[in-house]
From TrEMBL:
<dbReference type="GO" id="GO:0000976">
    <property type="term" value="F:transcription cis-regulatory region binding"/>
</dbReference>
<dbReference type="InterPro" id="IPR046335">
    <property type="entry name" value="LacI/GalR-like_sensor"/>
</dbReference>
<keyword id="KW-0238">DNA-binding</keyword>
<protein>
    <submittedName>
        <fullName>LacI family transcriptional regulator</fullName>
    </submittedName>
</protein>
<dbReference type="InterPro" id="IPR000843">
    <property type="entry name" value="HTH_LacI"/>
</dbReference>
<dbReference type="Pfam" id="PF13377">
    <property type="entry name" value="Peripla_BP_3"/>
</dbReference>
<dbReference type="InterPro" id="IPR010982">
    <property type="entry name" value="Lambda_DNA-bd_dom_sf"/>
</dbReference>
<dbReference type="Pfam" id="PF00356">
    <property type="entry name" value="LacI"/>
</dbReference>
<keyword id="KW-0805">Transcription regulation</keyword>
<feature type="domain" description="HTH lacI-type">
    <location>
        <begin position="4"/>
        <end position="57"/>
    </location>
</feature>
<dbReference type="GO" id="GO:0003700">
    <property type="term" value="F:DNA-binding transcription factor activity"/>
</dbReference>
<dbReference type="InterPro" id="IPR028082">
    <property type="entry name" value="Peripla_BP_I"/>
</dbReference>
<keyword id="KW-0804">Transcription</keyword>
Length: 354
């Protein structure tokens, strides 16, 4: 006879495995749920092990999380969503930061493999190749967060980046903008891609969905085509994620004397750097150049002028990753989840010739 597991108890009691764990650990649980759980334990003859034995995966409800930068406001919001939803399910969370370094990312995977994880929520900076070489990860639920179609058997939860690029470009075109500069996010790889020309060589590859900048660029191209605007690669480049990166990008645009009437930034922080440089040069926003950010972070609501941006709910991304993990654990369902984005119109954009 096969060994009775905590999942067997949960199925018979018609409760979640997390509820069984809370009952076994003495946490507060509704009386009817607790009774059904204890009845199932008795019926099945489930052997309750000492909590000191913290190495039996079936008695531990633990989610491992790897993010590129734990100090980033974006990933901080993701983590908040993960922690909130994990608490509801009764799961504990162990968080690792890869510090945007591929070797560090591999080390994080190796460290987490030593723990009795039930699931892994993984926001990769490079590839996910190390997972294939670690047998431990063959037996747990895995979600790849923030990336699309990495050509793997794992579930992916990600934002609609193509729609994001489309919404930003389409809106600017409708305002009468003809020369819309696109800044794409740089991807931190073992051999960093630093030019957009290099990135374009990957657009027909099997893992093109991994590259957020390519997906946004697809939306950018689609909107330009619909508005009968030419695609000018002089108006396309990659950019980092910091305020200084935005400042430097704006300086480069002005120094090259490019004819630009709008800029789509990598994120809201980059957009504030663009705003600062343009102000220093006496270039008015939005009268002379419109600027759109990305993320809808708090800085977008305090910048001068207030920043038009594409909203992507990082907190919700974290929540949805946990929900996806739970479907794998309880229902054995592996499915991708596409999260919507929204254009938030504020004061950094305006129609031409106002």
């Amino acid at each position: 006879m096969s060994k009775v597991t905590i999942h067997d108890v949960a199925t018979l009691a018609e409760v979640s495995p997390a509820t069984v764990s809370r009952v076994l650990n003495g946490a507060s649980v509704k009386e009817d749920l607790a009774k059904r759980t204890y009845d199932a334990i008795e019926t099945l003859g489930y052997q309750v092990k000492s909590r000191k034995k913290h190495n039996a995966k079936e008695n531990v409800f633990l989610i491992g999380v790897i993010v590129p930068d734990i100090s980033s406001p974006f990933y901080s919001e993701i983590i908040s969503g993960i922690l909130k939803e994990s608490f509801i399910y009764g799961y504990e969370v162990v968080i690792k930061s890869s510090e945007s370094l591929q070797q560090r990312e591999k080390e994080c995977l190796e460290q987490l493999a030593k723990l009795p994880l039930n699931a892994l929520i993984y926001y990769p900076i490079a590839t996910i190749d190390p997972l294939y070489t670690m047998p431990f990860y063959e037996d747990i639920a895995i979600v790849i967060g923030g990336r699309e179609n990495m050509n793997t058997p794992y579930a992916h939860v990600y934002f609609d980046n193509e729609k994001a690029g489309y919404l930003a470009t389409k809106y600017l075109a409708k305002l009468g903008k003809k020369r819309i500069y696109y800044l794409g996010p740089i991807h931190q790889l073992e051999k960093p891609i630093t030019s957009f020309e290099e990135l374009l060589t990957l657009q027909d590859g099997p893992n093109k969905g991994f590259y957020v900048s390519l997906k946004r660029f697809e939306g950018y191209k689609k909107a330009l085509e619909e508005e009968n605007l030419p695609l000018d690669f002089n108006l396309v480049s990659l950019c980092g994620y910091t305020w200084q990166d935005g400042y430097d990008a704006a300086r480069d645009i002005v120094t090259k004397m490019l004819d630009v009437d709008a800029i789509i930034a990598v994120n809201d922080v980059v957009a504030t750097g663009i705003l600062k440089f343009l102000k220093e040069q006496g270039i008015r926003v939005p009268e002379d150049i419109s600027v759109i950010g990305y993320d809808n972070r708090s800085v977008a609501q305090i910048s001068v002028p207030l920043l038009t941006t594409i909203d992507q709910n990082a907190y919700e991304l974290g929540r949805e990753c946990v929900i996806n993990v739970m479907k794998q654990v309880t229902e054995k369902q592996i499915e991708n989840k596409l999260l919507d984005v929204e254009l938030i119109i504020r004061h950094s954009t305006a129609a031409t010739n106002i």
